[in-house]
């Protein structure tokens, strides 16, 4: 019983082996028959006046890199070519029902398809990829390739831009009457595309063109695949745009900073330099072209213009702040403009009233600001100098003189002479006292005038300080509004693209 099972297994293996040998023999025999008297350099047509119809299709696999500085795109695609070779025909029944065969492209004729906008110098060997041949002579050649092509960028709406990068395929050696190039489908295949972190694939429309070049009278057809990609702007917004917006917003603090700090101009210039550094970073990314100004470039120009204007106005405000050091009063028109109109706009009327109470150089009358007028005083009656001296002499109390021992008067002196000497002594003391009082009165008058001038100077300085503060607050509101409008315009701007590839 066991030897019968062994014989059955042996016969089965012989039958399977003979079948495999027959199939291998059929494929080998078919290749030998197909390549007999076959030329890889001649077009595979029986009638030489008929062109070879080449159908081209691609499947975009990945966008490896887009060099915006040099405007070069590096991408990975699967190229799909199909044409009909009239010398490759066989009957399936003669070759054990063989429906397709794979052959190296080095052994068959293949079209010299070229990427016209290729920027790579070295030639890519593609002979290692085999082609599939069907019984009716159709040749299908599918192979992957890394393309490095030129892509002209339009950075008008950067970082909200959308680019159109073409792949222009055509024959380099055959004209349209020898090799007719056409597209396999109306668009490229996007089903196998690997998402890119920077670019979003929108569409791959295909167009066929026939171009007459100056060298030759025959047309040269080409098939162009337009890769429409849209930039993902989130990276640029968080790493470039938002820091720039914050830097521009910091410049508004300069209008709120007191002029006494001495750092207003330094702050604005520092912010201006920081914004210039960010602008240089953007310039390194953008391609050097003078056709358009990018949207982000327009934003930077607007921001730098605002900062430059704010620097000039900051210097103007500081000049107003220190204008009172020379005692020059505020002009009436400026006083009325700032204390009455601008103070109401910036909601600083209470501050103006409080300042005027501390330094009453000016006062508010019926809501208008006018210089404070001195109340008229009743003129005093001018007194004579003799009356003043009499009052002073009456108010003087002389210190008691020490008692002198009686001295014998000379016989030559009489009582009248002694009285005259005492009167002369008293008159001399009153005159010295009057001189001293006049000096004291002069110094007191000078001190009073100096104190009044000092108070007036402090009032004038305080008035100029208040003018500078009010104008500073007005500029803060104006520049905050302009910065907000500029920022919202940049962040909310969404361009509408309607691409046309015809």
TrEMBL record:
Family, per entry: Belongs to the ligand-gated ion channel (TC 1.A.9) family. Acetylcholine receptor (TC 1.A.9.1) subfamily.
Positions of transmembrane segments: 234-258, 265-283, 295-318, 474-497
Gene: LOC106157439
Region called Disordered, residue ranges: 367-386
Keywords: Cell membrane, Disulfide bond, Glycoprotein, Ion channel, Ion transport, Ligand-gated ion channel, Membrane, Receptor, Signal, Synapse, Transmembrane, Transmembrane helix, Transport
Organism: Lingula anatina
Membrane topology according to the record: Multi-pass membrane protein
Ranges of residues in domain Neurotransmitter-gated ion-channel ligand-binding: 27-232
Alphabetical list of PROSITE patterns matching this protein: NEUROTR_ION_CHANNEL
Protein name as catalogued: Neuronal acetylcholine receptor subunit alpha-10-like isoform X1
Compartment list: Synaptic cell membrane
């Amino acid at each position: 019983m066991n030897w019968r099972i062994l014989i059955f297994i042996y016969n089965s293996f012989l039958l399977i082996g003979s079948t495999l040998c027959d199939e291998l023999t059929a494929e080998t025999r078919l290749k030998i028959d197909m390549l007999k008297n076959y030329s890889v350099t001649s077009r595979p047509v029986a009638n030489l006046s008929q062109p070879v119809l080449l159908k081209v299709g691609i499947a975009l696999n990945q966008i490896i890199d887009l060099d915006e500085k040099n405007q070069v795109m590096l991408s990975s695609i699967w190229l799909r070519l199909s044409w009909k070779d009239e010398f490759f025909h066989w009957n399936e029944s003669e070759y054990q029902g063989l429906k397709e065969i794979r052959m190296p492209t080095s052994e068959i004729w293949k079209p010299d398809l070229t990427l016209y906008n290729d920027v790579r110098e070295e030639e890519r060997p593609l002979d290692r990829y085999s082609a599939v041949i069907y019984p009716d002579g159709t040749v299908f050649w599918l192979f992957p390739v890394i393309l490095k092509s030129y892509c002209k960028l339009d950075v008008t709406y950067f970082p909200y831009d959308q680019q159109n990068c073409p792949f222009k395929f055509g024959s380099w050696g055959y004209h349209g009457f020898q090799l007719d190039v056409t597209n396999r489908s109306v668009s490229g295949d996007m089903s196998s595309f690997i998402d890119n972190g920077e670019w979003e694939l929108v569409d791959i429309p295909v167009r066929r063109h026939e171009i007459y070049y100056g060298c030759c009278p025959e047309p040269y057809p080409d098939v162009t695949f337009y890769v429409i990609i849209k930039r993902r702007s989130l990276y640029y917004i968080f790493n470039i745009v938002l820091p720039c917006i914050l830097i521009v917003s910091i410049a508004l603090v300069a209008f709120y900073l007191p002029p006494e700090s001495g750092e207003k101009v330094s702050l604005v210039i520092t912010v201006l330099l920081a914004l210039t550094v960010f602008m240089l970073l953007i310039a390194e990314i953008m391609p050097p072209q003078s056709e358009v100004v990018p949207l982000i470039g327009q934003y930077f120009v607007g921001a730098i213009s605002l900062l430059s204007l704010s620097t000039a106005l900051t210097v103007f405000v500081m000049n107003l702040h220190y204008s009172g050091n020379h005692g020059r009063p505020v002009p009436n028109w400026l006083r009325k403009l700032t204390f009455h109109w601008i103070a109401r706009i910036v909601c600083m009327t209470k501050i103006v009233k409080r300042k005027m109470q501390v330094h009453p150089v000016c006062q508010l009358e019926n809501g208008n600001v006018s210089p404070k007028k001195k109340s008229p005083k009743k003129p005093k009656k001018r007194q004579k100098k003799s009356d003043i001296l009499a009052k002073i002499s009456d108010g003087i109390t002389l210190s008691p003189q020490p008692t002198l021992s009686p001295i014998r008067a000379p016989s030559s002196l009489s009582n009248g002479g002694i009285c005259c000497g005492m009167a002369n002594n008293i008159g001399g003391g009153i005159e010295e006292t009057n001189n001293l009082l006049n000096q004291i009165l002069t110094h007191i008058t000078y001190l009073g005038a100096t104190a009044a001038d000092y108070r007036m100077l402090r009032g004038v300085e305080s008035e100029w300080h208040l003018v500078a503060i009010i104008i500073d607050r007005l500029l803060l509101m104006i520049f905050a509004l302009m910065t907000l409008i500029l920022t919202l315009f940049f962040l909310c701007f969404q361009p509408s693209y309607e691409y046309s590839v015809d």
